[in-house]
């Protein structure tokens, strides 16, 4: 009987490569950091509780040393993902996003700049709250320019962020 399936445990992976992820490829192209397209993972660890039909993951950590770290928890039920995370990026990656240091990645700790990240939706249509905040930060950054009303500087950059 599948309704009574339950598994509880922990998982730890010491070395992996995350590749062929379209969103990571777009971020790599935007930032010029090619290693983001084929991301070397130094650790993945998490505690899980699979109580059919719900998978709950806590104490999740995914890290690519000195580049990106994701910490948080999420649930998957009926092909829907709901997650709350802290996202840490290296300062040189954050600097590629105009205004992000001032408005989005405001906490500095462990060599990373941090922000919250909320994910929801299905694997095919996963939504996050980070992209709209990055777009808004870039718009605010360029709006401060003296020529902003005339030339709309940064429109290409803002469009590129919207397409990530």
Helix content: 25-40%
Shape: globular
Oligomer: single chain
Structural class call reads alpha+beta
Q: How many runs of DSSP E, i.e. beta strands?
A: 10
The helix/strand order is EEHEEEEEHHEEEHHH
Q: What Rg, in angstroms, do the CA atoms define?
A: 18 Å
Largest sheet: 8 strands, antiparallel
SS field, number of helical segments:
6
Low-confidence stretches: none
**How far is it from the N-terminal to the C-terminal residue, by CA?**
42 Å
Per DSSP, what share of the residues sits in E-state strands of 2 or more residues? over 45%
Q: What is the averaged pLDDT score?
A: 90
What are the main properties of this structure?
alpha+beta, two-stranded antiparallel sheet
Structural overview:
This protein has 6 helices and 10 strands, in the order ββαβββββααβββααα. The strands form 2 sheets. Strands 1, 4, 5, 6, 7, 8, 9 and 10 form an 8-stranded antiparallel sheet that branches. The chain has a two-stranded antiparallel sheet with strand order 2-3. With 164 residues, the protein is an alpha+beta fold. Helix content is 27%, strand content 45%.
Task: Give a nutshell description of this structure.
This protein is α+β, with helices and mostly antiparallel strands and 164 residues long.
List the topology elements:
Blueprint: E1 6-13, E2 16-19, H1 22-31, E3 38-41, E4 43-51, E5 54-64, E6 68-77, E7 80-89, H2 91-94, H3 100-103, E8 107-109, E9 112-122, E10 125-128, H4 130-143, H5 148-151, H6 155-162
Antiparallel strand pairs: 1-4, 2-3, 4-5, 5-6, 6-7, 7-9, 8-9, 9-10
Helix pairs in contact: 4-6
